[in-house]
Amino acid sequence: MPTFTALDGTQLAYHVRGEGEPLVVLPGGAMRASVYLGDLGGLTAHRRLILLDLRGTGDSETPADPATYRCDRLVDDVEMLRAHIGLDHMDLLAHSAAGSLAMLYAARHPERVRRLALITANPSALGLRATPEERLAAARLRAGEPWFEKAFPALEAWLAGEGDFDPAMAPFFYGRWNDEAAAHDEAADEQTNDEAAEIYSAAGAFTPDATRAALARLTAPVLVLAGGLDGSPGPDLARRTADAFPNAECVVQPGAGHYPWLDDPQWFTERVTAFLGAGPVLPPSPR
Q1: Is the peptide bond before 30 cis (omega within 30 degrees of 0)?
Q2: Under 8 Å between Cβ of 76 and 70
Q3: Taking CA atoms, which of 40, 135, 222, 252 is between 20 and 30 Å from 279?
Q4: What's the chain's Rg over C-alpha atoms?
């Protein structure tokens, strides 16, 4: 397992999987170990995934200062990874909460981003969030499924601030609720650093006006991929996210939830690889 040293001395780990040109991958959660991404639906057959374990998650060390879990502070870790693997510029894929991290990185280091794929990305960095109404509208699309009658009232209560997250709501995050999805969801608790997740979006993490201004000058192509059944972000929010970039396209994967590579791996990998095209050449591995 390769590692590198962050600016504050924290040892950070990353995992290399697959063949082909490199694709740096940032996991969401927030602050969930990269293992949940698996092979991204078979994307490893097309690209060499470099999956970062964010500080305090997976095989990376816990930092001495918990304040460094804040999203804007993590940008330096991404830049150190790029420098460590020796890429002048890179293809970058970010899932869910890491969408905001990738946007902050692109705003601060636009010359380092060759292509940016935002997968069911949380656009808090742009001052955008899914509303309860949008999330409930997406949930109602699942009304014909056997688990809906129990799950929907729990979701309503949670979004109204009247209860904790109920495991009964988990099927809303997957386009197909089956044994694979249930196992994927069950693993989340042990893979997530809850303390870090609380700090990730803390006050000061995001400056939407400045980020929007910087991203308006980004020349790299951007893919914003939404799941047709996902409520956060739903397709409309994904389109508004794409509007923040001068060279972006928004695509909606039919029947997919928040983890689209699980719902239809072939559709996902074909669409993402078509966007990424030929990647940057990876230099010899650092020693």
Answers
A1: yes
A2: no
A3: 252
A4: 18
- Pairing relationship of beta strands 90-95 and 113-119 according to DSSP bridges: parallel
Quote the pLDDT of residue 285: 47
CA distances (Å), origin 150, targets 146, 147, 183, 232, 251: 9, 6, 19, 20, 31
Six-digit token string for 90:
């890179």
Per-residue model confidence (pLDDT) at position 286? 45
Does the pTM exceed 0.90? yes
pLDDT in tens, 82-140: 999 999 999 999 999 999 999 999 999 999 999 999 999 999 999 999 999 999 999 99
- CB 18, CB 47: distance < 8 Å: yes
236 Cβ partners below 8 Å, 6+ apart? 134
Q: Where are the beta strands (DSSP E) in the chain?
A: 3-5, 11-17, 22-26, 48-52, 90-95, 113-119, 222-227, 248-253
Quote the DSSP letter at residue 253: E
Helix 71-85 × helix 98-108 angle, to 10°: 70
| Contact yes or no for 91/279 (Cβ under 8 A) | yes
Percent of the chain with pLDDT over 90: 94
CATH (residue range 3-131+192-276): 3.40.50.1820
Measured between alpha carbons, how far is 172 from 155 in angstroms, rounded to an integer?
9
Alpha-helical segments (H) within 127-176: 132-140, 148-159
Distance CA 3, CA 14 (A): 6
* Sign of the dihedral through C-alpha 17, 281, 216, 222: negative
